[in-house]
């Protein structure tokens, strides 16, 4: 059989419906859904706590369903409360690599060398700021680093509804 006769399996891509809550009331995940993956980030994740053992299993379960087995996760050790070297998630061992870089991302690896970089929105971020940061991160043409997205979408002290009320008085 010639190589051209071999049926090709399409790469696992993310469906447009991936913009969903992992569990209602908990973490939120948004991913770029284009085939190009030209942006600096592939998506954004808004965990609700700094407990990696609580937050990561839901993220990995959802990603595994769309991307296949996740083998490694790279995280900034300073952003999490305690960090194991591995977790067993859905009967699959996922290795955690830690680095004290403070770059506001998580690096997801499937297979041997296919990486997905996700912006990590801090748990205490307001809903409006989180939505804005996540929307910027998933733009196919995004060339802004995670830290700059978070700075640009964080309201200044005094911004918000209270400032609006005071201005109308």
What does this structure look like?
By secondary structure, the chain is an alpha+beta fold. It contains four helices and eight strands. The chain has helices at 52-67, 127-137, 146-153, 161-168, and strands at 20-21, 28-31, 43-46, 70-76, 86-89, 92-99, 105-110, 114-120. It has an eight-stranded mixed beta sheet with strand order 1-2-3-8-7-4-6-5, with helices on both faces. A hairpin with a 3-residue loop joins strand 7 and strand 8. The longest helix has 16 residues, at 52-67. The termini are far apart.
Poorly predicted runs are: 6-26, 161-169
> Helix/strand/pairing class, anyone?
alpha+beta
Number of strands: 8
Q: Please give the order of strands in the largest beta sheet.
A: 1-2-3-8-7-4-6-5
User: What's the total helix number?
Assistant: 4
The percent range for helix content is 25-40%
Q: What share of residues are in beta strands?
A: 15-25%
Look at the structure and give the mean pLDDT.
78
Overall geometry comes to globular
Q: H/E series, N to C?
A: EEEHEEEEEHHH
Radius of gyration: 18 Å
Q: For the terminal residues, how far apart are their CA atoms?
A: 79 Å
Let me know the largest β-sheet.
8 strands, mixed
Structure characteristics:
25% helix; 169 residues; 8 strands; disordered C terminus; alpha+beta; eight-stranded mixed β-sheet; globular; 25% strand
Topology, pairings included?
Blueprint: E1 20-21, E2 28-31, E3 43-46, H1 52-67, E4 70-76, E5 86-89, E6 92-99, E7 105-110, E8 114-120, H2 127-137, H3 146-153, H4 161-168
Parallel strand pairs: 3-8, 4-6
Antiparallel strand pairs: 1-2, 2-3, 4-7, 5-6, 7-8
Helix pairs in contact: 2-3
